[in-house]
Amino acid sequence: MAKIVGAITTSHVPAIGRAIAKGLQNDPYWKPFFDGFPPVRDWLAKVKPDVVVLVYNDHGLNFFLDKMPTFAVGAAAEYRNADEGWGIPTLPPFRGDPALSWHLIESMVGEDFDLTTCQEMVVDHAFTLPMALCWPDMKWPVRTVPVCVNTVQGPLPSAARCYRAGQAIARAIAAWPGGERVVVMGTGGLSHQLDGERAGFINKDFDLHFMESMATHPSWATQYSTAELVKLAGTQGVELLNWLVARGTLPEKVRKVHANYHIPISNTASGLMVLEPMD
Ligand code: DHB
Ligand code: FE
Question: Are 256 and 215 in contact, with CB atoms under 8 Å apart?
């Protein structure tokens, strides 16, 4: 049986790609952010995953505003990097795991989740940069299963539904007969808003509450409607829905292995957590 060995949740921001390309990890602006990642890499070296299920939002590459699936799952043998125009370097392609992807799709559709299945898919900074932060040599030692959540254009899936989607992913992985060790990543957030009157909005109080809830009270954020989450976290802060999917794949009780929080990275409050199932 495949096993979820833990979850990593982290922000994604295109500027991180530029900082990596320019080697700015020790620059005073970037150091507090990059310093969050060595403990993540130590943990990965210990848990040795075979597969990463990567929950993120597509930023207009596969799905533009004219076609917007609520949940989409990749089922390709390979995923190539593209981006929506921030001019950041392209990273090496990622191996897929079509057999596990199709199992996940069958299992979730079997539980009445309506998915879009993608036999071709390109991946953007929300997928590539968290991978590059975990494996800076960019020789990806894992196969990947991309899970896209619509955090972009209303109506968005509710926080409660995202949490339940994570629980459904966990059931699918537990039923997979392979012996794979799986890490689930959730990328995006925390509070930020790129557009409109509140551009630049950040809510540290909310972010810290949310991170605490991820460790100790995982359904806390499901009390909020999408409109309330936008108000609390910003129009792009709702990317925290990806964190909730990842959190839903773990049992109620988890061990917080590591956390980091830093403001700002570009326009974003950056958060990072590593959680392990408590068994
Ligand atoms: C920024 C944050 C994002 O989540 C994103 O997708 C693009 C840009 C930013 O803070 O610049
Ligand atoms: Fe984003």
Answer: yes
Rounded to whole angstroms, how far apart are CA atoms 108 and 245?
13
pLDDT band at 6 (very low <50, low <70, confident <90, very high): very high
The identity of residue 162, as a single letter, is C
Give 135-149 pLDDT, tens digit per residue: 999 999 999 999 999
Q: Which residues line ligand 1 (CB under 6 A)?
A: 12-15, 59, 188, 192, 194, 236, 239, 266-268
Burial of residue 70, with CB atoms counted within 10 A of its CB: 0-12 exposed, 13-18 middle, 19 or more buried = middle
| Nearest alpha carbon to residue 246 among 160, 202, 187, 184 | 184
Domains of the chain: 3-277 (3.40.830.10)
Task: Give CA–CA dist 200/193, Å, rounded.
Answer: 6
Distance 278 CA to ligand 2 centre (A): 30
Distance in angstroms (rounded) separating the CA atoms of residues 67 and 218: 31
Q: pLDDT at residue 279 above 90?
A: no
Rounded to whole angstroms, the Cα distance separating 19 from 24 reads 5
117, 105 Cβ separation under 8 angstroms? yes
- Please give the model's pTM, rounded to 2 decimal places: 0.98
